[in-house]
Amino acid sequence: MEKEKMIEKGFEESMSELEEINNRLEREKVSLEETLELYERGMKLIEHCSKKLEEADAEIKKIIEKDGGEATEDFEG
Description:
77 residues, mainly alpha, Helix Hairpins
């Protein structure tokens, strides 16, 4: 069920939630149990965002190749 919810989330929304988690962990006193839950959620969000970026990279490469260019470079930061 959670995986389905994650698929529905866009990249920007996922990044925003990840930032909120990070801010919470930095600024608030949270219990060990809650820290572990937030960490696990953050890792899932990172995985989701990475997948979205890989999909976008593949799509950009397709567009470049379709237009007769060469997609020889990865679009990584």
